[in-house]
């Protein structure tokens, strides 16, 4: 299985990391799956986990209200993801509203509100407890100066695949909270990666990430069966190229969407 996918990925060698697993047969394809890559907004997955870990422990009320402050705002251009920065000062949202924005809109303001509330060290402890060896969380969102000075966030395709398996298995978290996280991931508004070449009715729980300046573009998720709506495939794709490639973003997104299409066709028997 995944012969066509392997043939396609081979041309990109070290610039593309892929982990694909057919959840029904156990068949796996991987290419550079353990390679640490700059994670961009993919690390917002671990903010989501920390949030619901605290909910499970009874130390965080997801319906508690938070009033937006001027100092919370992150980003000034459409390049900086999210919409919360454009809301009026003092608007009250539940913490669950904020964590949903952190994923669904990849909202940098939402992410940093939660990171300042939790602390980077706490999120990193969760990552270690999950056994994710290639993931590090060393800076808040939009701290590009810190990134240039060597403080960077990293993850790998295998680590994110293992994270998704935690959500599916609910071994460390109550089933209802894992299901809530998966539901939030299916609400992802950025659909130009994994979903782009797939049936628009296909359910996909995924998280995107990309910083064109750093030559990164990623999309990693769980693809469900079109008919039965049950988990079929973990498909994680991360790309790392030189940032001066012309039209880098569409180039990288084309790779991601093509990997997802080939993987899904082969896993669902459409590629025979």
TrEMBL record:
Record keywords, A-Z: Hydrolase
All copies of domain Beta-lactamase class A catalytic, residue ranges: 17-239
Biological process terms in GO annotation: beta-lactam antibiotic catabolic process; response to antibiotic
Hydrolase in keyword set: yes
Family annotation (Pfam families): Beta-lactamase2
GO MF annotations in UniProt: beta-lactamase activity
Annotated InterPro entries: Beta-lactam/transpept-like, Beta-lactam_cat, Beta-lactam_class-A
SUPFAM superfamilies named among the record's database cross-references: beta-lactamase/transpeptidase-like
Domain of life: Bacteria
PANTHER family in the cross-refs: BETA-LACTAMASE, BETA-LACTAMASE-TYPE TRANSPEPTIDASE FOLD CONTAINING PROTEIN
Protein name (Swiss-Prot/TrEMBL): Serine hydrolase
């Amino acid at each position: 299985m995944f012969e066509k996918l392997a043939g396609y990925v081979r041309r990109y060698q070290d610039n593309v990391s892929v982990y694909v697993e057919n959840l029904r047969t156990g068949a796996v394809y991987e290419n550079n799956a353990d390679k640490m890559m700059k994670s961009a907004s993919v690390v917002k997955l671990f903010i989501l986990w920390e949030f619901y870990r605290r909910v499970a422990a009874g130390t965080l009320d997801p319906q508690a209200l938070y009033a937006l402050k001027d100092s919370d705002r992150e980003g000034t251009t459409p390049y900086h993801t999210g919409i919360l920065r454009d809301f009026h000062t003092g608007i009250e949202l539940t913490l669950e509203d904020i964590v949903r924005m952190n994923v669904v809109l990849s909202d940098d303001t939402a992410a940093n509100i939660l990171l300042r509330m939790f602390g980077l060290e706490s999120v990193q402890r969760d990552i270690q407890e999950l056994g994710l060896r290639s993931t590090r969380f060393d800076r808040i969102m939009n701290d590009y100066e810190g990134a240039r000075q060597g403080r960077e966030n990293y993850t790998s395709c295998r680590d994110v695949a293992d994270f998704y398996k935690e959500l599916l298995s609910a071994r460390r978290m109550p089933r209802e909270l894992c299901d809530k996280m998966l539901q939030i991931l299916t609400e992802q508004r950025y659909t130009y990666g994994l979903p782009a070449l797939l049936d628009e009715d296909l359910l996909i729980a995924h998280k995107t990430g990309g910083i064109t300046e750093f030559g990164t573009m990623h999309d990693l998720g769980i693809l469900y069966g079109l008919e039965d709506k049950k988990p079929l495939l973990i498909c994680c794709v991360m790309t790392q190229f030189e940032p001066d490639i012309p039209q880098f973003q569409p180039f990288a997104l084309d790779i991601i969407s093509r990997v997802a299409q080939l993987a899904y066709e082969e896993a669902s028997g459409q590629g025979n």
